[in-house]
Amino acid sequence: MIGDEDFRRHCVAAALLSAAILALVLSGYAGRDRLAEIAILAIFAMSLDVLVGFTGLVSLGHALFYGLGAYAMAAFATMLKLPAGLAIPLAVLVAALAAFLVGILAIRVRGVFFIMITLAFGQMGWAYFQRSRTFGGIGGISGIGQPDLDAIGLSLANPADMALIAVVAAALVYLALARVTASPFGRMLVAIHQNESRARALGLPVQSYKLAAFTLAGAVAGLAGVLAAERTNFVSPDLLVWTVSGEVLIMVIVGGLGTLVGPALGATIWVLLRDNLSALTPYWMLAMGLFFVAVVLFADEGLYGLTARIPWPKRRRPSDA
Amino acid sequence: MLEARGLRKSFGALEATRDVSLALPEGARHAVVGPNGSGKTTLFNLLTGELRPDEGQVFLAGKDITALPPNARARAGLTRSFQKNNLFLDLTVRENLALALAIGERAGTVFWRRFERVPGLLARAEALAERVRLADVLGIPVRALPYGTQRQLEVGLALGIEPKVLLLDEPTAGMSAEETRAMTSLIAGLPREIAVLVIEHDMEVVFEIAERVTVLDYGRILAEGTPQEVRATEAVRRRYLGERAQ
Question: Nearest CA to CA, how far is A301 from chain B (Å)?
Answer without folding.
Answer: 14
